[in-house]
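Entries read sequence, tokenised fold; example below:

***
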Amino acid sequence: MEWKIDPSHSSVDFAVRYLVTTVHGNFTGLRGSVQVSDAAEGETPELLSFDATFDVTSFQTGIPPRDHHIKGENFLDAEAHPEAKVRLVSLTKDVSPCYLMTVELTLHGVSRTVDLVADAAGPVTDAFGVVRIGATATGRLRRSEFGVDAFPGVIADSIDVAVNVQAVPASLPDDQLPPAK
């Protein structure tokens, strides 16, 4: 079955060590498609494909001056590379409903594979009567592998990521998606 990502309920979250603390933030507006197998009622369908994009300018940590700096030329260079992409490359079913997956991430104009562990859920019906499926995929990447290498030793090279996705049937018109709370 074809599903589309609900951008108001999906994000790419990160955590990175900065000097002696960890900074958390996210990218919002994740959009794209998810394909899952048909499943009997009460069972979680199997993930078949995943293809998404997100707006690099949506980067936020809650501190606007820092966010502006990170979106600039020293780091993400959002003006030159406004969109990032995530695409499923391979998938191995672990203990249901978990998967070991490899995705291709394109960020800062560089494409690399990243290994993630995903935990799927659904389908469930929300309070508005919309059927949803979801997953959270977590892993670690090295920012230097994507050409984002400013301030080594001050900002860690290793970044923890979590891709949080809620998807609805692709046939549901966008104007019928419930708002984020």
About this structure: The two ends are 27 Å apart (CA to CA). Residues 25 and 60 are 5 Å apart (CA to CA). The chain has a mean pLDDT of 93. The first strand starts at residue 2 and ends at 5.
